[in-house]
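Ticket #4471: structure export looks truncated?
Reporter: QA, pipeline team
Priority: medium

Steps to reproduce: submit the single chain below to the structure queue and open the exported record.
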Amino acid sequence: MKVQQIMTPRPRCCSPDAMLSEAARLMLETDVGEIPVTRDGLKVVGVITDRDIVVRCVAAGGDPRNTPVESCMTAPAWTLSDDASLEECARLMAGQQVRRVPIVDANGAICGIVAQADLEATDERSLKADVAARVATPH
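Actual output as written to the record:
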């Protein structure tokens, strides 16, 4: 099975110069914990998570209304091509201990995102167990 079969297509993205408060608002509107960060709306340059905002900005005394995404995002982002297998996706998630992976097309433009929950919704029992165990392990 390929990631394009389970990915969420056309995820909402933000630019590196957007404020963290804008990224947080997107997370709220779309009920997600990660927003891909793109240049020109296409090329993934990083990701911003709810945890990035809290740990790297709020806990450090920063103001999300005046702090650009670029200063707190995780970069570079781990991505996969839309023709990657679920096994490749599971290996990446487990190996890098990430819960979400932006998916890019043949031109390198973002076209989807796969979350750990997407893998868990499949019938691939061995993938689910491995990813869940490895991603939950502290760094």
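Status: closed, not a bug. The export was complete when the record was re-opened. Leaving a note from the reviewer for reference: The chain has a mean pLDDT of 91.
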